[in-house]
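We close this part of the discussion by returning to an individual protein. Part of our work consisted of pairing the sequence of a single chain with a tokenised description of its backbone. What the numbers capture is local backbone geometry rather than side-chain detail. The amino acid sequence and the backbone structure tokens for this protein are reproduced below.
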Amino acid sequence: MTEKRKIKLEKWEAVVAGWRASGLSVAEYCRRNDIPAWKFRYWREKTNREARGAARGGRFVELPFSDSSADNGKLVVELASGVRIRLEAGFDPADLARVLRTLGGPAC
């Protein structure tokens, strides 16, 4: 992704997040922010597709641990197949990628 495209995508992700937080309808949010509704809908779908693509594309994202999500510094990932993987704090993402490939998960 080019730097220009990344900046534009980040801008629209912020706009879509602002709409979600506003509680307004798309039409009202666009009217108040002088955004053509068709353009907003296009970018809302585009940012959603990019997010879904990133999830399927095997990119890693940082998951913050909290008292409710951590079990003594561990995170359990359950795949659709029912396989559970317990990750300790400081795990090596390359090792996880190899495990997922071996299990037939998404390419990382």
Q: What stands out?
A: The beta strands are 74-78, 84-88. The longest helix spans residues 3-22.
